[in-house]
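Problem: given the chain below (121 residues), write out its structure.
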Amino acid sequence: MHLLSIVFGPTPTAWAMLFQKPELADKAFFDLEVAKRERKETVSVFDEYGQRAVFETVDIHGFMLEDLEKSKVAQIERGLHQARTQARAQQQALADPILSNAARMQGAPVLSPMGNGRFNG
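Solution.
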């Protein structure tokens, strides 16, 4: 699946068009690119799910074609990177003498009420 996002208008509005066939997504992207480069007055694009649109090229701020399968992998990689960064920061905080000393000075944890009248401490 491919997603073509087009940002247009005086108050930027995003429009998304969806494609199963990469060649049709590429064609729509190419049509937008050529229309902008050649300063055509309007450009017409359509997707595989019944959306058809005509844009005035001067109103188009930008457009992006996204391979959704690859971007899914990229999102997972970003999430894993964030988790690794947090784990590394926690390890470094435990090894830091100032932070570990501050944690020891806090004393015993305060009791906090839990459900059914139990306490966790």
